[in-house]
Request: fold
Amino acid sequence: MIVALAGGVGASKFLRGLVQALPPEDVTIVVNTADDIELHGLWVSPDLDTVTYTLAGVSDREQGWGLAGETWSCAESMDRYGMPTWFRLGDHDIGTHLFRTERLRAGATLTEVTAEITAAWGLAPRILPMSDDRVTNTIVCDVDGAGVPMHFQEYLVRRRMADPVLEVRYDGIGSAAPGPGVVDALATARGIVVCPSNPVVSIEPILALAGVREAVAGRKVRCVGVSPIVDGAPVRGPADRLLPAVGLEVSCAGVAQGYAGLLDSLVIDVADAGRARDVEATGIEAVVEDTMMVDDDVATALAHTVLEHLEL
Ligand code: GDP
Reply:
């Protein structure tokens, strides 16, 4: 079994390729839940849903999140009443949140509910939330000279990354345990993959859970990552604001520095071939490849490259 550490959009594009390159039932995906948010009484797990919808082939590929052909009647109705709709939930998507929330209230764990949701979509890979406990990416921003902590979604979606970032916190991480099966999957994996996800708010919260970084660092198998930074910038999202906040350069070399001691190889984009030496200075082998996943064929070719370097 191969274990992939994953966020949402970047990870999902890659995972579409990985399940072409491997029997899908041989893939276990550990998904970030530190972006989760409670809205209107509903428990929303954006990365879990992005991975699920994308692997099920029902995601809005253009937008990168949500369901294709989604309708927005509920949000329009909420607008009428002046309810906050900065985090827009589509009508069909709301069904997922209703199910998750109801099951959690009935006492199921997030791991159990996630298994039920992925089974309902007929997915073969095992999808594990990183934790059943609540961990929250909190971005401390400079707002008029004062440090103001905000939920990651508020920083990203509501305020559109407008505020300078002072600090990134993982609230709850000290008392959160990795989800059942997470450390065990890492310990028994034939190979570990770090998806092209945001290193600060998608991958680090997983690694920061008790025992997870140790399980990756102490592995007896190979671990290969794909850089989410291409040509000195994220393909999309706020990584360019968050990497500097944790002292890392916005480049594939900065990504490598953040993963030093954890990765054997990092796949970097052809546009970054000139930075291969800087990557290798961190002790990580640089593998140069097309990483711009404009379609599933590129993602599948990239997955084959990753598998090659896992030396299975
Ligand atoms: P999020 O939680 O939905 O933001 O998703 P992730 O953390 O999984 O992915 C965000 C990262 O994916 C961003 O830093 C992007 O730069 C990266 N990304 C998105 N598409 C691609 C792509 O086609 N190639 C590469 N190399 N990175 C990508």
Summary: The mean pLDDT is 97.
